[in-house]
Amino acid sequence: MTRLTAQDFDQELLILFDAYVHGTIDRRGFLAGAQKFAVAGMSASLLLAALSPNFALAQQVSPSDPRLKTERLAYPSSDGHGTVNGYLARPASASGPLPTILVAHENRGLNPHIEDIARRLALDGFMAFAPDALTPLGGYPGDEDKARQLFAKLDQAKTREDFVAGARYLKGRADCSGKLGVVGFCWGGGIAHVLATRLPELDAAVPFYGNHPPAEEAAKVKAPLLIHFAGVDERINAAWPAYEAALKAAGAHYTAHVYAGTQHGFNNDTTPRFDAASAKLAWERTLAFFDKNLQRA
User: Fold this and answer.
1) What are phi and psi of 279, to 5 degrees?
2) What does the alpha-carbon distance between residue 267 and residue 172 come to, in Å, rounded to a whole number?
3) Out of 186, 203, 228, 269, which one is annotated catalytic?
4) Is 228 labeled as catalytic in the residue annotation?
């Protein structure tokens, strides 16, 4: 199957799709706006299907991979929604405690792609845990449109507390080495930033194209940050100069990379916005950053 890339679509259409993904417009609004890009054999509906995730195409690690131990579990979140479900992956061969990484998903809940990310991290020697923000609404529904609709109904303040609780749960596990990192994508990138301001015990945070906290929160950041930006992502990038200035003023340790010409979501290999070269480089940098700061054996 031929993989489409961002270069196969008009930039205006990609911006329209980003607005749809993030709830600025609904499905009907996308289809109406995409009609101008429809050509013979490719209607607006087919354009939406082509831009939407294909989880099977992108899966890198099978859920039944014998090199891993995976489980679904629940943890308490007293300041959030009470109980939250999540997906845990660790190397099957591990004989002792492991450095741990919380994986914060995009604005669709714990979908197959994020579970695959957790498994990829586990194959690299970490214990990875991905909470599902949609737990109080029944969990990820298996449909991206329904997931976005449910996500808009969440109490975001409680959901942030769910991820704070998830990080503390992970760090407190007997099979955690005591070293804790977080990686997040899109909405989850914003969560990675939030955890960096909320958890002084955090050892490393890697936001991929996530919203920044208010500038005054930068003074609370204690963990080193590795921040990845798409080159073509004004919605996220416009807020960076102010937050960077605040990080500098606070003496925070951070490194930021901008991947020229890439779209928001460039690391997500389930959609045409995926940029293979930039994603490879960003992931290599991410693993090296976690190796350094989580002191993986």
Assistant:
1) -65, -40
2) 30
3) 186
4) no
State the burial class of residue 112 (Cβ atoms within 10 Å of its Cβ: 0-12, 13-18, 19+): middle
d(CA 101, CA 37) in angstroms, rounded, equals 41
Residue-wise pLDDT tens for the chain (297 aa)?
Answer: 578 899 999 999 999 999 999 989 999 999 999 999 987 678 999 999 999 999 988 899 999 999 999 999 999 999 999 999 999 999 999 989 999 999 999 999 999 999 999 999 999 999 999 999 999 999 999 999 999 999 999 999 999 999 999 999 999 999 999 999 999 999 999 999 999 999 999 999 999 999 999 999 999 999 999 999 999 999 999 999 999 999 999 999 999 999 999 999 999 999 999 999 999 999 999 999 999 999 865
Say whether 257 is catalytic: no
Residue by residue, DSSP assigns 146-161 as: HHHHHHTTS-HHHHHH
Q: 6, 268 in Cβ contact below 8 A?
A: no
- The span from the CA of 188 to the CA of 114, in Å, is 10
Whose CA is closest to 217, among 188, 186, 190? 190
Both structure tokens of 93: 């061969």
Among 162, 233, 269, 275, the one annotated catalytic: 233
Examine the residue annotation and report whether 176 is marked as an active-site residue of this protein. no
Q: Which of 193, 212, 228, 264 is catalytic?
A: 264
Instruction: Work out the number of other CB atoms within 10 angstroms of the CB of residue 86.
Output: 22
User: Tokens 């990484």 appear where?
Assistant: 101
Q: What is the gyration radius of the CA atoms in the chain, in angstroms?
A: 19
| C-alpha closest to that of 87 among 55, 50, 122, 59 | 122
| CB-based contacts of 174, cutoff 8 Å, min separation 6 | 97
